[in-house]
Amino acid sequence: MRSMIGIVLAALVLLAVNCAFVVNEGQTAILLQFGRIVEAGFKPGLHFKLPFVQQSVRFDQRLQSLEAAAERYLTSEKKDVNVDFVVKWRIADSAKFYTSVAGEEARAQQRIAPTVRDGMRTAINTRTLQEVVSSARADLTQTLVQKANAETQNLGIEIVDVRIKRVDLPEESSVLRSVYERMRSERKQVADSLRAEGSEAAERIQADADRQVQVIKAEAYKEAQSARGEGDATAAQVYAKSYGKDAEFYAFYRSLEAYREAFQTPGGVLMLDPKSEFLRYLQDSK
User: Fold this and answer.
1) What is the DSSP letter of 43?
2) Residues 6 or more apart in contact with residue 191 via CB below 8 angstroms
3) How far apart are CA 45 and CA 43, in angstroms?
4) In contact, 127 and 185? CB cutoff 8 Å
5) Residue 143 near residue 123 (C-beta atoms within 8 A)
6) Strands 45-48 and 20-23
7) CA dihedral angle for residue 124, residue 130, residue 133, residue 139, rounded to 10 degrees
8) What is the pLDDT along the chain (286 residues), one digit of tens a residue?
9) Nearest partner of 91 among 100, 79, 78, judged by Cα
């Protein structure tokens, strides 16, 4: 009897489990019966189904990301650019999504990627390089979203946004070389301008320093000449006083000074008349 009750309880539990299913927040679900969709668009919460006959399939309805590798495109000016982008998408119709890609996100992204690439190629082909890299990118991505939604609506998905991550010029591109040359030229102009300003400042500083040197030398020379003049005047006063006190001694002292200057050079020869006044104090000891 107890075993029978246990079997009945187990059967009831199994029946209850197969009669209900839960859809979590951020999910949607469809209900299949013998492989055919009988109901779709279930909201988050507790739902019921026929046991053993119907199966529930849940899908993530949150935003999904598709990042595409960089590819080369051609602008309207026939210039190559490498562009990589990211696509934000989500499931909009769970029934269509299950029917078109069997509910597999990887297969859905395989369908989205070429569609967006074709739209990107068409959009870039009709725009200049400046429009691709400037603020016109917003218009470009908006056009891509509209076109991608129109071509993928049968997949049961919605393209929310397409964003260009990076726009690069190929290494061998002539545009890249011209950009580098222009940048080099601009940097050279800036360097030459700074160098010229530095040279001008250096010359101005040097000229100011030279002027200050000349002024200092002139003032020093003036002070030296003034001091020399004062010294000469003082010496003259001393000489005059000395001469006034003893004229003969003063003459004798001056003669000795003249002798010292005249006979200073070793081995020198001085030819004079023996009766010369210059030799007076050598001839007359008195």
Assistant:
1) P
2) none
3) 6
4) no
5) yes
6) antiparallel
7) -60
8) 666 666 656 655 556 567 888 889 988 898 888 888 888 888 898 888 888 788 888 888 899 999 888 888 888 888 888 888 899 999 989 889 988 898 888 899 999 999 999 988 888 888 888 877 775 567 778 888 888 888 888 888 999 998 888 887 776 556 556 767 788 888 888 898 999 999 999 999 999 999 999 999 889 988 888 888 888 888 778 777 766 676 767 777 777 777 677 667 776 666 666 666 666 666 655 5
9) 100
Q: What is the CA radius of gyration of the chain?
A: 55
List, in sequence order, every residue forming a beta bridge with 34; answer none if it has no partner. none
E strands in the chain: 20-23, 27-33, 36-42, 45-48, 54-60, 64-67, 71-74, 80-91, 157-168
Give the whole-angstrom CA distance, residue 123 versus residue 73.
10
Going from N- to C-terminal start, the domains of the chain cover: 2-60, 64-176
Residue with tokens 């001694």: 249
Domain 64-176 has CATH 3.30.2290.10: no
CA-closest candidate to residue 75, choices 28, 118, 126: 126
Cα 148 versus chain centre, distance: 36
What kind and span of H or E run contains 275? none
Distance CA 270, CA 181 (A): 83
Per the structure block, which two tokens stand in for 84? 């990589």
Q: What is the dihedral of CA 95, 100, 106, 107, to 10 degrees?
A: 180
Q: What pairs with residue 89 in β-bridges?
A: 64, 159
Among 158, 162, 14, residue whose Cα is nearest residue 87: 162
Q: Are strands 54-60 and 64-67 parallel, antiparallel or unpaired?
A: unpaired
Q: What are phi and psi of 195, to 5 degrees?
A: -65, -40
